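User: My instructor asked us to take a sequence, write out its structure as tokens, and then describe one feature of it. I'm not sure where to start. Here is the sequence I was given:
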Amino acid sequence: MKQRLTQGLLLLTGLSIFLLFNISTTYADDGIIVFSGRSDKFIKPVIKVFTEQTGIKVTLHNAKSTALINKLRFEAQHTKADLFISNDAGNLQIGSELDLFQPIPDKVIAVIPENYRAADKTWVGLSARARVLVVNKNATDISFVNSVFDLANPKLKNRLGITNNTNESYIAGTTVYMLATDRDTTKSWLQGIKANVGSDVFNKHSKIVKAVAKGKKDVGLVNHYYIYRYLAENPDAPIKIILPDQQKGQMGVAWNVAGIAISKHTKKKEAAIKFVTFLLSEQGQALFAKVNREYPTRPDIATAPEVPAADSFKVANIPMYELGKQRNATIDLIEEVGMP
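Assistant: Let's start with the prediction itself. The structure tokens for your sequence are:
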């Protein structure tokens, strides 16, 4: 079972060994060390406040979440990592099933709904994002688009922006679509969007939003906060957001969470728990909403005012741990179709 779980991860030979040892290995003697698959801009503002209030220093070691999972596996009991942050629930769940984490105390994670955390309590979601459509307001013949499945319509040939097939949100979103419908429907959808984009894909959501704003693409599939970040800097940009699949009988918006886990082998468990506790506190959750325009996973914390409230639209009813359990099946399907 564990061998199967490594599909979609880097193999621990050759280039992977090079990658693992080239993730910074200079560790701080004080404070806690976090292996982070998130960009610094998403987490550092929250860390700054935590350190100011507790005096506990937090050192981030950044890399792709997949590479960090492999690093944790390779280092095993010798790891200096106290915690692991991922931008994707899929990698968190895989880490749990590889026995890399330890349960987080009930009193800490009880504030987060069960569908945003691992069944065995070894990881918890910190902030959520919605997979939405960004559309150029000046685009013609676009009114038929109200579902992600409409992106496979041939009318959008050369007009669609998506990320490449290694993007974690792309993989997670595809998993949601597959679980909310079925494998054949999702395969047909992938084939359709492949035909529409050819090999013209993007390596960042921010580039998709910019391309749509500049009229180079008419519609793009992105995480919601990239749109609001772009509009904050370019308020007159001719773009709008579409929350897809909201009509009767449709599945709702695909959801994913960034989350955190405590390393099984941490020697600083008390400090690690304090860090998780802060990130899930009212203050920590409000910071994710304000700074990043993400959705707090705590239901009692409001979103940023410019972002649609979480209870104002329909979300696909898929527990976040399924993004890890079904990750291999999703990668198999993406590779079968030959997505760029």
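For the description part of your assignment, you could build on this observation: The beta strands are 32-36, 58-62, 83-86, 101-102, 124-136, 160-161, 219-223, 239-242, 255-263, 295-296. Try explaining in your own words what that tells you about the chain.
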